[in-house]
Amino acid sequence: MSFAPRPIVAVALLAGWIALGAWPNAQAASGGTSAGTDAVDYRQLRAAVSSAAALPRLHALIIMHAGAPLVSRVFRGSGLDVPVDVKSLSKIVIDTLVGIAIDRGLIQNTRTTILPLLRRRAPARLDPRVGTITIDDLLSMRAGLERTSGPNYGRWVNSSNWVRFVLTRPFVDEPGGVMLYSTGNTHLLSAILTDASGTNTWQLARAWLAIPLGIDVPRWTRDPQGIYLGGNEMTLSPRALARIGETYRLGGLHGGRRVVSADWVRRSWTPETTDLWGHGYGYGWFISEADGQPVYFGWGFGGQMLYVVPSLELTVVMTSDTDTRSFDGGYLCELHDLLAREVMPAFLPGHPPGESDSALCGPALPLQLPAQLRAQRPLQAVKR
Fold first, then answer.
1. Could you tell me if 116 and 42 lie in one domain?
2. Hey, which residues does 125 pair with through a beta bridge?
3. Distance (Å, whole) CA 96 – CA 215
4. 182 vs 160: CA distance, rounded Å
5. Are 23 and 2 in contact (CB under 8 A)?
6. Are 55 and 305 in contact, with CB atoms under 8 Å apart?
7. What is the number of domains present in the chain?
């Protein structure tokens, strides 16, 4: 898979056409668009937007193709430039900052053990296995410690010291073992970024991402010691999410300038483990496929979604209600199917909509790990 950016001819009116429901026909679209945009089935794309509008929990939808915003719609809620709570999608931001810190030499590499980086914050008496946890283990959710997400989240954020609370959890598995999804892991990364850089995580996010990408990253929740919460409650606008997705699609570049290394993008999109539903998981990104096309996505509570399909030059953002679990009522599968059965067929010539060969939510296994990615490394089984 190539991450090299491709030439794009901007289509200034295209977003307006779709926002107003005035769709160019194939002949009109072929004048003044990139070769990739020529192949778009606009009738199918319009059908996809209609399907999206019928989802009562969906707030906004952005579909980028070859860098052009083909769909920019708000169905309910705030505008596309208004920051909203993206929940666990913020893990991608924190993990990207870790990649930039490694690029800049502030952290040696992902094999570095974490205790020397948390020396002034860690309690004196710890299980010796904590000393073997690496940056990689935190990024890939394989620290082995009892989770601080799910039913344990409230107890964690009500504690007096979030870093110490995470480090003193009992071990459920060995470090580097199975995937145990835990926001506490990402919070430890936020603490490590703070101490390694000498500044706080919000300032790093502004300097390393917000300014280069031209987006807004407002301040967000901090723990009792002043560390910005790693992996939750960050607010980003749908358009900001689209720029982050596009940066990854282009191998770490934005506007031709390097934001994060191409190697970090590659590693983030390489499965280190699998989750309960068969997704691969790298560094903040889940890894799946639909119709033989690798799909990389971030996922936040309630249905805050960022999808990247590099082979189709697609970046898709969906934001949703934040007060209901994305699993409830099958909503997460509705979002996956919107992408796989409605949106992607518009960019797959001759492919009938609704007939995805390996839809993200299929009858047997909701998400299929691409065979070529599965073969890259043995994947650990997953425990709750």
1. no
2. none
3. 15
4. 18
5. no
6. no
7. 2
Tens digits of residue pLDDT in 290-307: 989 999 999 999 999 999
| Inter-residue contact 205 to 97 (CB < 8 Å) | yes
Half-sphere exposure of 172 (CA within 13 A, CB side): 18
Residues 117, 163: one domain? Answer: yes
DSSP letter for each residue of 8-49:
----TTHHHHHHHT-PPPHHHHTSSS-HHHHT--HHHHHHHH
pLDDT band at 326 (very low <50, low <70, confident <90, very high): confident
291 or 162, which is more confident: 162
Residue 381 pLDDT:
34
Q: Are residues 259 and 337 in the same domain?
A: yes
Looking at the structure, do residues 286 and 193 belong to the same domain, yes or no?
no
DSSP 171: B
Report if residue 185 sits inside a domain: yes
- Give the residue numbers spanning the domain of 115: 88-213
Pair 36, 114 in one domain: no
pLDDT in tens, 277-293: 888 999 999 999 998 99
Return the minimum-mean-pLDDT range out of 132-136, 161-165, 291-295, 375-379: 375-379
56 in a structural domain: yes
In a domain? residue 1: no
Most distant pair of Cα atoms in the chain: their distance = 70
